[in-house]
Amino acid sequence: MEYRILGLAAEAAFFTLLSVPPLLLCLVGLLGYVDAWTGADTIAGFEQHFLDASRAVLSDQGVHDIAEPIFEDVTRGRPDVISIGFVFALWSGSRAVNVFIDTITVMYGLDGVRGIVATRLLSFGLFIVGLLVCSVALPLMVAGPDTVVHLLPWSGLAVQILYWPVVIILCVVFLTTLYHVSVPVRSPWIEDVPGSFVALAMWFVCSFALRIYLTSTIEGPTIYGSLAAPVAVLLWIGVSAFAVLVGAAMNAAIDRVWPSVATSAAREANERAREAEAVGAMARYAAERAGHGEPGDPDMPSEYPERWAGFLPPEDVSSRLRAHVKRRPGKHAKRADSGAGTGTGQGGASPAAPPGADPTQAPPGEPPYESERPYEGEPPYKGEHGYASGGGQHRGTGRHEGDGGGWPHGG
């Protein structure tokens, strides 16, 4: 759940289903150029299967007005349909593969290591390879060994023994390769095999559970109506994508516990780069707050200013408070006049303020006013006159007590 596996699996399923119709159009369009090799019977059989599948989605009127004219038009040889359909299928299919690559990269903590262009090109390549593998593996899984024995009667015993092991090996090799190339740094290929077995096992379990669900809800009269077949296909693709991402999460968890040299070094470098970027952002924000930066810096994180304000140095905050107090001298002057002569100690009454003296500053030999005292744990603030070597101790009573008299101040 930490990596939004369910939501990302749904996203991959949507783009995968979106790529199926243009792929079928490309396949139908190619039949117009290879009919001399395949024969008329092959095209007629494919047309019948195509129209039967269309009736599962469309009404009879829709099949007559849409599916049949499209098939007849495309089978005559339409290069524009083939090219446009393939481009659209390549975009949507590679977008689904891109979801897997980005998610696996984030699971390993290496997001941002590979660039966007490189990730997109890798998605295109893996989509093409996936089409070739699925064109061999999926028909074998759907047809079963009996169909192969019917096509190749002489291989009956060998097919019965080797059929499912070969199918499982092909799926494991494809999934392991997907996990291996999705990580930006290279690690041993064999380390990604455990996740492939987990994904394959989960795919079998989820597919069986989905079959039971669809049998009890979609078969026969259903509220989905003509959308029952697309919904079933979308659910099956979503379950498959979920199983693939769970296998990737398993590999990432194993790598966190027993990391390889390459992934560990790349992860540490990525974390250092993020920390340096965060420190730079905080420094720029502090410089702007101090008046040394350019206002309106586009790199500043303005959406959460209260989070970044906590990183201001304490001396900057205290200097701002002192500047705020100094802009109000009347209050301190009034308190100084009313509190004159209240000092205690050996010196008797406190002397009056000298003419022209700043009422907000302590006279020579006196500690600063309460408003100018340093905060706890902060180095002392040296004002215009500095500290005296022998002062008294402030007790919070509004006066200064010591052996040399005191200058009254506001408490």
Give the tags.
single chain; 411 residues; mainly alpha; 3 domains; two-stranded antiparallel ribbon; 13 helices; 65% helix; disordered C terminus
Show the helix and strand layout.
Layout: H1 5-38, H2 40-55, H3 60-74, H4 79-107, H5 116-143, H6 145-151, H7 156-182, H8 193-217, H9 228-257, H10 261-289, H11 305-309, H12 314-326, H13 329-338, E1 393-394, E2 400-401
Helix pairs in contact: 1-2, 1-4, 1-9, 2-3, 4-5, 4-7, 4-9, 5-7, 6-7, 7-8, 8-9
Oligomer: single chain
Roughly how many Å is the radius of gyration? 38 Å
The chain-level mean pLDDT equals: 71
The gross shape turns out to be globular
The CA-CA distance between the termini, in Å, is 57 Å
* Element order: H for helix, E for strand: HHHHHHHHHHHHHEE
Strand order of the largest sheet: 1-2
Write down the domain tally: 3
Fraction in beta strands: under 5%
- Number of continuous helical runs: 13
Helix content: 55-70%
Number of strands: 2
The major β-sheet equals: 2 strands, antiparallel
SS-derived structural category = mainly alpha
Poorly predicted runs of 5 or more residues:
331-350, 381-411
